[in-house]
Amino acid sequence: MPIVKVIEVIASSEKSIEDAIQHGVTEVSKTVRNIDSVFVKDIKAHVKDGKVTTYGVICEISFRVEPDTKHD
């Protein structure tokens, strides 16, 4: 039975919410394998002079933990 680990990340983008989510997944993928899903916990946007300047997301990224075959 696989074990799933969840980490929380904060990511942002000047383009869109979707781009902020993708940026978070892309960065985590550099060091974590077997990513299965992303749960967006919170969304926010920074505003300057009446315009949205940055989109931010807080995400939980889930990934399968690989078994340690050395100790089986």
Task: State the helicity in percent bands.
Answer: 10-25%
Number of domains: 1
Which stretches of 5+ consecutive residues score pLDDT under 50? none
Identify the CATH architecture. 2-Layer Sandwich
Question: What overall geometry do the principal axes of the alpha carbons give?
Answer: elongated
CATH H-level superfamily title: Flavin-binding protein dodecin
- Structural class, from secondary structure content? alpha+beta
Number of DSSP-assigned strands: 3
Distance between the termini: 14 Å
Number of helices: 1
> How many whole angstroms does the radius of gyration measure?
15 Å
Q: What assembly state would you assign to the polypeptide chains in this entry?
A: single chain
Beta-strand content:
over 45%
* The CATH class: Alpha Beta
**Strand neighbour order, sheet with most strands:** 1-3-2
CATH fold title: Dodecin subunit-like
On the 0 to 100 scale, the average pLDDT is 94
- Secondary-structure element pattern, one letter each: EHEE
